[in-house]
Amino acid sequence: MFEDAAGFTVCGRVMNRDECDSEIAVDATKAVQHLFGNQVKRLSFDRGFHSPDNQKELSKLVTDLCLPKPRARQSVKQLAEADAEFLDAQQNHSGVESAIGALQSGNGMQRCRDCAEIGFERYVSLAILGCKRLTLGRLLIAQQDSRNEAALTCRQAA
Question: For residue 140, how far is the Cα from the chain centroid?
């Protein structure tokens, strides 16, 4: 799932059962770059997306890449050597995790009543649409009154 700076989910998909995160990172990033005319400058991924090949290929696609290494020792070393852009991208990564959680809990995704794969994809798409409407509503409220509680995200309130 890709999210923009305003909090809109701009691209998301249900992975096949036999795919793992590290296998889709480069192709998904290429698709998003194509969608936005190569204007995406910063991306943040989970540890599951890391591989040496992904590190090399994704670095060619975006300027600021946050691709944490999978093991604790590697991660500690990577953080010690990280630049400000990496740390900033990692700091904002929790927003994507929060968005995934919102899809599951806040939009009726606790249980998919349509058991087919296409039904699950439809449920996920509808949940993403619901989140986009909530984000748009929050932004419209913020235009009228930026101090309104409904205009704040959890990131802004903290």
Answer: 22
Q: d(Cα 127, Cα 99) in Å, to the nearest integer?
A: 10
C-alpha count within 13 angstroms, C-beta hemisphere, residue 111: 1
How confident is the model at residue 158, as a pLDDT? Answer: 47
Owning domain of residue 140: 2-157
Counted domains in the chain: 1
| E strand or H helix at 5 | none
CB burial of 61-87 (b: ≥16 within 10 Å; e: otherwise) equals bbebbbbbbeeeeeeeebeeeeeeebe
If you average pLDDT over residues 41-54, what whole number do you get? 85
What is the pTM assigned to this prediction? 0.69
Instruction: Indicate the average pLDDT of the chain.
Output: 79
Return the SS3 of 2: strand
Dihedrals phi, psi of 108, to nearest 5 degrees: 70, 25
CA dist., res. 96 & res. 150, Å (int): 19
Q: Round to whole Å and give the CA distance between 92 and 43.
A: 10
